[in-house]
Amino acid sequence: MTDLHLWLRHEVRSTERRTPIVPADARRLVESGVTLTVEESPQRIFPIEEYDAAGCRVAPAASWVSAPEQAVVIGLKELPDRPGELTHRHIYFGHAYKQQPGAEDLLRRFAQGGGVLLDLEYLVDDDGRRLAAFGFWAGYLGAALAVLQHRGKLVAPLTPTSKEELDATLQPAPDDEEFTALVIGALGRSGRGARLAFMAAGVEAATPWDLAETRDLDRPALLAHDVLVNAVLATTPIPPFLREQDLDDPARRLRTLCDVTVDVGSPLNVLPVYDRTTDWTDPVRRLRKEPPLDLIAIDNLPSLLPRESSTDFSAALLPQLLDFATGGPWGRCRDRYHQAARELGIAEAEGEYRHG
Asked: What CA–CA distances, in Å, run from 117 to 22, 74, 103, 121, 328?
């Protein structure tokens, strides 16, 4: 373990306040013999002084490009466009294996530089279950924002908060009308979070759908709900839950749609009724004027609760970092990267992998 050098990078997205390693877990890594360099980051929820006190090395933001070759760079969201060649091993959510926009360019950057993408979405156990995920908090926030929008109480731009403050805003007022809610993917992490948020908002009977209900989809029943939260991220092609013609169905009661998984641009998208995400500045997009249908599709929802979501994620990731190796879960991440590169015909043609 003493030869592992992790490099926690600054996130280039201004609204990304989360971190995959919180200071308390950074201390445990350092005490185990890991070298941990942490870049300064003005928006990270935990100040750099807490990492310094935990025994981490401190480096300027974006200095990972000149990190030692064997350092493993760790982050959460997208990398900057430069450098064009990526030479390190990178741990983060790459969103590059399902034909998403920009995926081929990203994989080509790794191939040209000899680096490796260790995508956190594919850090799984022997049974294919993800070992570290933000899904619960994505679902919780997705449902919370859907409730606030449906009640006419969502205030933009969105700002990070705490769970206590968020739950206070979810309490129903005496004049709030009751509504029906549906959670698709209700048994997964995101679905569980969504259901708990609806409960916190006083919506006790959110309808839970999962595999059994989506296998033979009842679209009229779906459209009969007022609010829908989608927490299904498909890994194989399945029929879409909503189609363009469904939005114009005269029987549609659905008024608020939150897509937690935000798989826009992917051929596996189960909600192909929109072509761009929403964001903190403009969190809602109106898909239909009459009757109205509002969409929330924000791809970093857990960053609105950065402390809680980071703490949970870091606790789940810590054992995997303490056992960082070329086999096991990290080996599966590496193999998935090589598979994706080969599928695009770029692995052997453009790069030699220095990292296995």
From this structure: 22, 10, 12, 11, 16
Q: Is 288 helix (H, G, I), strand (E, B) or coil?
A: strand
How far apart, in whole angstroms, are the C-alpha atoms of residue 22 and residue 25? Answer: 6
Q: Which amino acid is at 282?
A: D
The tokens for 32 are 């185990």
Q: Quick check: 90 and 79 in contact, CB under 8 A?
A: yes
Single out the catalytic residue among 77, 163, 338, 355.
77
Task: Name the catalytic one among 10, 88, 95, 225.
Answer: 95
Q: Nearest 5°: CA angle at 203, between 198 and 205? A: 100
Known catalytic membership, residue 153: no
- State the first-to-last Cα distance of the chain, in angstroms, to the nearest integer: 18
pTM value? 0.92
Q: pLDDT by residue (tens digit) across 8-29?
A: 999 999 999 999 999 999 999 9
Residue 225 is a catalytic residue? no
